[in-house]
Design goal:
By secondary structure, the protein is α+β, with helices and mostly antiparallel strands. It has two domains: about 10-90, Carboxypeptidase-like, regulatory domain (Immunoglobulin-like); about 95-185, Alpha Horseshoe (Serine Threonine Protein Phosphatase 5, Tetratricopeptide repeat). It contains five helices and nine strands, in the order βββββββββααααα. The radius of gyration is 25 Å and the shape is elongated.
């Protein structure tokens, strides 16, 4: 078998390997993966070391929980080769600056939620809503904050606003039991 080096390019979804293919190219992975065929729209499980045999054009995505997915794309049917692929753990792809920024954001959110819980304990709806307005302006993607907003709106007497907040929160967190219970109570007319 004639072996040739393979180039790899990092993209947002992970790693793309462009592999020329002839009668048979084999791609082996360092661990168990789920292979998704983009052309056939099906998937199969592949054990560590078992070859993915490429005999025609096509593309596959190899996935393993906690690892960066890899896309294998056939680009040239005129070369035979063997390729070994080592999937990288997700945490190894984030530089220390990204980890530090994530930690700062998490610390800020946690501290704010503790303050909000304190405002809720003393039934200070104005402070709850003001704190949430600032926090959600900075972190609009954190839908869980809508559960806190619903409680603040209830303290203020805004039942319809609380229902809207609960529905937004439950759209992202549908299995949150207290949120579901409160929404059911409010929609039935209770408090």
């Amino acid at each position: 078998m004639n072996l040739r080096p393979v180039t790899a390019t990092v993209i947002l979804i992970g790693l793309i390997l462009t592999t020329p293919v002839v009668a048979e190219t084999q791609v082996r992975f360092d661990g168990d993966v789920k292979l998704l065929s983009l052309s056939a729209q099906n998937s199969t499980d592949l054990k560590a070391g078992d070859p993915l045999v490429l005999k025609k054009s096509g593309s596959w995505i190899a996935e393993r929980p906690g690892h960066v997915p890899v896309m294998v794309v056939v680009v040239d049917p005129n070369t035979t080769q063997a390729v070994d692929v080592n999937l990288h753990p997700v945490q190894s792809w984030a530089p220390p600056q990204v980890q530090a920024a994530l930690n700062r954001g998490l610390e800020e959110l946690t501290a704010a939620m503790i303050r909000i819980q304190g405002h809720l304990r003393v039934k200070d709806a104005t402070a709850v809503i003001a704190e949430l307005d600032q926090l959600q302006a900075k972190y609009p993607e954190v839908a869980y904050l809508e559960f806190f907003r619903a409680n603040g709106l209830l303290l203020r007497g805004d039942r319809s606003g609380a229902v809207r907040s609960l529905k937004r929160a439950l759209a992202s967190h549908p299995n949150q039991p207290e949120g579901k219970q409160l929404l059911n109570q409010l929609e039935k007319g209770g408090e």
